Amino acid sequence: MSALSTSVGRLRCEYLVDPLGIDETAPRLSWCLETERQGARQLAYRIRVASTAAKLAAGEGDRWDSGRVESDATAHVVYAGAPLRSRDACHWNVELWDETGAVIRSAPALWTMGLLEKADWSARWIASDPEILRRDPQAIAPTLIEPGTPAVFRRAFELPSVSEVRRATVYASARGLFELHLGGKRVGEDLFAPEWTDYFKRIHYRAYDVTAMLVAGRNEILATLGDGWWTGYVGWQEQRGRYGSLENSLLVQIEVELAGGSRFTLGTDGSWQCATGPILSSDFQMGEIYDARREPRDWLPAREVAAPEASLVAQRSEPVRVTQMLAPVSHTEVGPGVHLYDLGQNISGYVRLKVEAPAGTRVQLRHGERLNADGTLYTANLRRAKAADVYVCRGGGVEIFEPRFTFHGFQYVELTGLPGAPLADAVTGCVIHSATPPAGRFECSHAGVNRLWLNGLWSQRDNFLSVPTDCPQRDERLGWMGDAQVFCRTAMCNMDVAAFFTKWLIDVEDAQTPEGIFPDVAPRLREDINFVGLGNLGGAAAWADAGIIIPHTLWRVYGDLRVIERHWGSMVRWLDWIERHNPDGLRLNKLANNYGDWLCIPSDTSFGTHSPMKNLLATAYWADDAAKMARMARALGREAEAVRFQAMFERVRAAFQKEWLLPDGQIAVETQTAYLLALAFDLLPAEVRARAAERLVANIRELGWHLSTGFVGISHLNPILTLTGHADVAYRLLLQEGYPSWLFPVMQGATTIWERWDSWTIAGGFHKDGMNSFNHYSLGSVGEWLFRHVAGIELDPEQAGFKRFTLQPFLGAGLDFARASYRTLHGEIRSEWKLAGDRLTWTVVVPPNTTARILIPSEPGTAVASDGLTLSGREGRFAVVADAPAGRYTFISTCRVAS
Predict the structure, then answer these.
(1) Known catalytic residue at 356
(2) How far apart are CA 91 and CA 446, in angstroms?
(3) I want to staple 646 with a disulfide (CB 3.0 to 4.6 A). Which of 403, 630, 667, 792 is the partner?
(4) Cβ partners under 8 Å of residue 429, min gap 6
(5) What is the C-alpha to C-alpha distance for residues 329 and 470, in angstroms, rounded to an integer?
(6) What would the DSSP string read from start to end of 447-499?
(7) How many other CB atoms are found less than 10 A from the CB of residue 63?
(8) Percent helix, strand, coil in the chain (nearest 5)?
(9) 598 near 710, Cβ under 8 Å?
(10) Closest to 773 measured CA to CA, from 521, 410, 471
(11) Residue 301 bridge partners (DSSP)
(12) What does the alpha-carbon distance between residue 776 and residue 462 come to, in Å, rounded to a whole number?
């Protein structure tokens, strides 16, 4: 884009690009003013929504024409047109007026409505006839232990002509996972649809535009049905079928709209046929067996089965997709016919296998994150997960295999079974995750820190797969809420996860108990599944509290009031439950789990005990929940509830001080996390905050300038040190290379964030505990500090959503430069500083239609070159620009950083 050009771009509906089949009847629309012109801003907008692309092109908004609206709003503008009905196509654009008087119109965008009423579904749920397994001597009958052979379904239909077809849509769902083909071509790029939900509460469906896939004459739709979360292994279960069934079922409805207004509909029912296919078995944890010699045969009629009681709903988040392909960085034959490949990066995904071998050749792929000392594949940390795929060759030429219904966490691949040497490009790593768009980038002068940030980004990619899991490799892969809440602010810096968390918060509320207890994992595990003494997996401090923390963070980062309004009732019920069971203001109840500061040093991995530290942590989170609720209540105009929750915060704060605060500002529980929570959650009187921060620093110093926090404290560590005047200590911790530290795993060769600082060391090898994931993002939550305080891109303390924001970098010894970009709903913020001696050069970009408060690091009494902006005063060692409009600015100042 040239400096003078102006456009309107990044049109979104409910955070998504051109979504199909949504069920939000009052969708919110967003866009960006895009230009490099200084001072650019929107004065007014006009939205047109039309039923056809032709009407929109002609300037007609037959569904909605907002007219000219005098407003600078570009996000969360609620559709206010004619009531939306099932199947409605909504072609839309935005016209805006900028400060120069110019009128700019966007390119067209689209959303379509899904099937909003139960009566819109004429299709019937179907399952396979068990006879197909009995007729196939290779087929495997599903058991509680072993995954069975997936069924394939088909139905042919005739179209006399495609010239009259205006639009064709496939709506599909399953109890299990589906993959669709129409006319021999794959429908869509989604993986693992429908995605994970609490299947007792709601099941997703997906919508696909197949207009271009239809042909005149015979068309055939083919569906393969896999196990997925519905019947496969999930978590630590020793048995499959966690939702009470070993039978998968399918729902498909094809609707062809003709030019004359009529509609041809074909849905699953007893007229569909079923058979077995080339997949002999498939499971997320165990892997997939695929025999390419097999074709579906012996077709039998499908069975109609009872529909679920759960609601069918549209998916609100980006689908899981392949987002990258990685070629191996090395290939070694570690034994006769045993080939080991290193992708150079720990990923979540699967291998695209390319082979040429005789028919019947059985090729096996095993996956692992690390290598044993003898160079063989390390799989001990996978526990029960086999993570092995098998491909039986068809023969007759080059063959390509990609598994359909499994994924693995791995960096290394072991290939066996070939009669000769593999092809040069036999193995390609396919990276998969929920296709959340990139949002931020960070880079600095320290290679180790760059790798640390990248490791956090990779662990986010690898674990944000339908839900925010803890790990992608072993027999767990659960949506742990504590992990998600400590990392969510970092996640929002790295990628646009608004839609992703919007979907998951529905899972969280679905998992809440009638009494009001939020879960520890979402979707929730069944109550009869016991894990290390815990059956209910609910109510844990810092884990269950994610039910308040994440909605609050979504509102602050994206300006999303709807998400806190819709989950308001569940958040109130949670605090009501805590208050009922803790009448003295201390969260001491023994009716919930308490993991404490998980994997702190020294580690405490007990669950049910309630030590002073665990009680302090639980009470601190109760206070913070109440404070966040008071703030959200004020934003929603719920003044009475704001008063209630502010009073609750004050009462719990007072109880906290009475129980744990000593007269000299010391906390009775002398841990780094105790001080961090007390400072972060404003639990201390103002007059002792400085002394508490000094005690925190003293603790770090006494440990040889090392951290000792676990999962909970780690996200607060560097931000609190920085904001209490100890940025130098934060930088010292960042650059510490000894154990334990952020750079310690980097020095051991980590390409993702590890569950433990010492999951593997050069000196000692593997950690002996079976709980030893090499892809666990929690300890990577320092990422938010890199964006917020090193690059200085920070939220405004009062206004949510980055319409107005703060730019304030804190410099420290060890970095000569840092640069970051962050794409908000309003455009991309950029910050880049360089330090040469005492001379600081800092360049920032304030995106169009926003303003920033800028604090320039500078020594008192020295000159500041402010690029034409007016300095309004000073705050300590920062010169202040109170209100900078959109534009690119470079500041030069004198700034001394202590070595």
Answers:
(1) no
(2) 47
(3) 630
(4) 325, 326, 327, 328, 343, 345, 347, 349, 351, 352, 413
(5) 27
(6) HHHHHHHHHHHHHHHHHEESEE-S-SSSS----BHHHHHHHHHHHHHHB--HH
(7) 21
(8) 25, 30, 45
(9) yes
(10) 471
(11) 273
(12) 9
Considering the chain, what percentage of its residues have pLDDT values greater than 90?
A: 93
The per-residue pLDDT for range 644-689, each reduced to its tens digit, is: 999 999 999 999 999 999 988 899 999 999 999 999 999 999 999 9
Asked if 476 is an active-site residue, the reply is yes
Q: Which of 179, 195, 476, 832 is catalytic?
A: 476
Tokens standing for residue 166 = 């205006």
Residues 348 and 422: their CA atoms lie apart, in Å, by 23
Residue 731 or residue 536, greater confidence: 731
Neighbours of 149 (CB within 10 A): 23
Both tokens of 312, joined, read 């069918």
Cα–Cα separations (whole angstroms), residue 421 to 332, 361, 417, 426: 11, 13, 10, 10
Token code pair at residue 464: 């944000």
Secondary structure of residue 575 in the 3-state scheme? helix
For CA atoms 286, 288, 291, 294, the dihedral sign is: positive
| Closest to 675 measured CA to CA, from 659, 658, 699, 703 | 699
Residue pair 403/391 in contact (Cβ under 8 Å)? The answer is: no
b vs e for 675-705, b when ≥16 Cβ sit within 10 Å of the residue's Cβ?
bbbbbbbebbeeebbeebbbbbbebbeeeee
Q: Please calculate the CA angle 383-384-385 and round it to the nearest 5 degrees.
A: 95
Query: And the tokens for 788?
Result: 């917020």
Residue appearing with tokens 């009958």: 141
Enter the tokens of residue 790.
Answer: 């090193």
**What are the tens digits of pLDDT across the range 583-638?**
999 999 676 788 999 999 986 655 555 689 999 999 999 999 999 999 999 999 99
- Dihedral, 608, 609, 612, 615 alpha carbons, nearest 10: 20
For residue 416, give every residue at least 6 positions away whose Cβ sits within 8 Å of its Cβ, in sequence order, or none. Answer: 337, 338, 339, 363, 364, 366
Q: Which of 443, 456, 449 is nearest to 486 (CA)?
A: 456
Phi, psi of 470 (to 5 degrees): -80, -35
In this structure, the number of other CB atoms found within 10 A of the CB of residue 13 comes to 21
Question: Where would I find the H helices in 544-638?
Answer: 546-558, 561-566, 568-581, 612-636
The single residue listed with the structure tokens 């998916």 is 315
Query: What is the H or E stretch that residue 223 is in?
Result: strand 217-226
Chain position carrying tokens 């650059």 = 735
Is residue 523 reached through a cis peptide bond, with omega within 30 degrees of 0 on the bond before it? yes
Contact 88, 117 (CB under 8 A): no
At residue 288, the 3 state secondary structure works out as strand
Choosing from 257, 414, 755, 832, which is the catalytic residue? 755
| Structure tokens belonging to residue 635 | 């934003």
